[in-house]
Amino acid sequence: MPSSVDSALSKGDILEGSEEIATTGHENSDKGAPVDEPTAPSVSLNDPPRSSSKDIVAAIANHYASPSKPGSTGPTITASRPNFRNKNSGEGKELDAHLLRRLAGPSVGKAGLARDQTEITRLIARASEGSKYYENEKRKSEEVEKKIEGLLKLRDTQRAMADIPRLEASADKIIAELEATRDLSQTIVHVDMDSFYASIEVLRDPSLANKPFGVGSNNGVLSTASYSARAFGVRSGMATYIAKALCPSLIVVHMDWERIGAASEAVMDILREYAGDPDGSMEGTGMDVAGVDEAYVNITGYCKAHEIGAEECVERIRAQIFEETKLTASAGIAPNKMLAKICSERNKPNGQYALSFDPDAIKEFMRVLPIRRIPGIGRVTERLLDAVEIRTCGDIYTHRATLALLDKHLHLREKLAVYLGLGSTQVKPWARESRKSVGAERTFRAIEDPAKIQEKLELVTRELEGDLERLGFAGHTVTLKLKLDTFEARSRAKSARKPVRKYDELLAIGQELLAHELPLRLRLLGLRVTNLKDLRAPETGIKRFFGNPQEAAIRPAKRRKLDVENSDGKDAMKEEPIYILDDESEDDADEQPQTKRAATATPEKPRTQSLPDVEAVPRASSHEPMGSQEFFAATSNQPLGKRKRQPSPSHRDDDSDDIEEVVRHKSDKSSEQHICPICSKTLQTDNAGLNAHVDWCLSRSAILEASASASTSGPSDAAKSLAAQSKKATGAKKTGPAATTAKPGSSKGSTKGGKADIRLAWKVL
DNA sequence: CGGATCGAC
DNA sequence: CTATGTCGATCCG
């Protein structure tokens, strides 16, 4: 194995990444129910590393035949910055450092990795060599290199005639502005389950404890690896056969979506208890489920109400999680989501970390933080920043002039906010109105027979129709997504005059788009609908409800410190008087295509003028209709809603800012009459009650949908459907006991009664 | 608006 | 001889 190279790369700041790799469960549920036999989990102690023509695998196996006792030691964390430059020019065909990292997978940087990450990485690269996947990665890598080249050139020419001190001064001005927006009033915790899938497996089969094993859907890749497996270099996202090469004794278990979903539910329910106003009246409103195994919780109110400190509160949360699920969680406590997330990894396995709320301490914390730790900064961005010598957040300040010069590409303002440790303090449930698209896609063995491709299109279309139906959306634009067998991706879209959602309409458009592309050799085909129309948007009945002057009055008052970003916080408050009481439909009423949907993307002013002298330009604020927004925002969760949203705190300089209103403080009018937008029933309850009901109602329809597809499409589809739910419906009631016991009428359906049942379900599993 | 890319889980 | 699916954001033309 090469060595000279090592010096250049060896200390890969391996720390971080995502614990779990997202997987779908589509494949694993193919064969009926998830593995859950009385017997041992479906382990596949496969054949020893098949010595392929490439004895690379064998080489890897050799290299790691005797890893530094897996359990014995935590990974040696050699803190050092990534170094992408290829200093190993001495060797014949050296693989590009960036490419190596790409091949290493998305989660390189995770905690608990083996020591010499570099060796593993390059061996993996060798093993991958020649595959289409490899070639594609190489191509992409080269594109990035090219972009960097251009960037550096631009920087140099610009710098030649730039007034550096002035650029720095303007950056400092922005810093001052941003600093003024700092909000330390909220205590936010990010709770992250420890190797979730793996831990769940250990619970089912205790004999797995301390053994190196991985959890994967099928033959492909591992979604997660146990800590002892990580000591061998195995990590999430890694191809199973490579993992086996690294760790011959690796055990591979399949995902058990039922359990994962139940466990997730149990955990989220616990968290919801801590996420509410001080009086506890709005339990769950201060929570943001960010995936099956993680969530943000605003514990400000809870701590105040119970007169306890944040750390104690979080200890309590974690203890409760463990007590009720026997699963451990890690957590980060900080004044905003970004920081909380970063902190939750700090003491990863079963630990917590509380960041100081002192601005200077926060800045010091950021100063040494590798840029890659920032949510939103991935492989490519890390590479770009590295090119301009920015590796830690502290480097952002040092090179602020460069960022100013390359603002168009590197976003100075956004980076400065990161440098300051600013982030969103908005913690609330995902609102269905913020959904932008609904889609379905499928990967398969490359095919080129038009008839076969057509079949795939039909399959995907059927799936999409089902999702649209279940979710209650239709869309104006249909996009066909293709991935060639070379991994090259492509997409084609077409907008219809009317929002579409039916199978026939979708298929027709899909076929049209597809026809134009054939012939093809495909490995993936997907269909997606955007420019959504919410079919469950408030109808006249509901509209009246929200038109209620009292509700409207809340609007302007409750404008909270918008997150970072907002060049001019001052007048942001004026021109508030627009309470879109009625009609959310004007939403797609299509008028100003600009105003709404495009609000974020199309600022009223040229987005390019954000460079140096960015003068705060008061823009006409873009208002989101609030009607149903508040309604749903207060809802505790979203069935089948997906996660992830603006990772980075800032947006352009346009203030389209997330009109994130604080929806809480509500009129807790106890008895009011509302009409459920889903089932149309009239309810006698307060807002919370209504929301709870809608919640239940939505999840119920999701379940019905699942059963329906079960009877119409056969068992495999049903299983898939359920799997999809477990994964997507982070907040939705799961099927099974939990779901069937949830009480619709109860104004607290999601809290008391139902919860106990759900937990019971988890324990029973 | 359509297309491509990045990032996240 | 591996590498999903689903979604949001952003940038470009």
TrEMBL record:
SUPFAM superfamilies: DNA/RNA polymerases, Lesion bypass DNA polymerase (Y-family), little finger domain. Gene3D superfamilies: 1.10.150.810, 3.30.70.270, 3.40.1170.60, Classic Zinc Finger (3.30.160.60), DNA polymerase, Y-family, little finger domain (3.30.1490.100). GO terms for molecular function: damaged DNA binding; DNA-directed DNA polymerase activity; metal ion binding. Residues 1-91, 554-673, 710-756 are annotated as: Disordered. The keyword Magnesium applies. GO terms for biological process: DNA repair; DNA replication; error-free translesion synthesis; error-prone translesion synthesis. NCBIfam families: PRK02406.1. This is DNA polymerase kappa. It comes from Serendipita vermifera MAFF 305830.
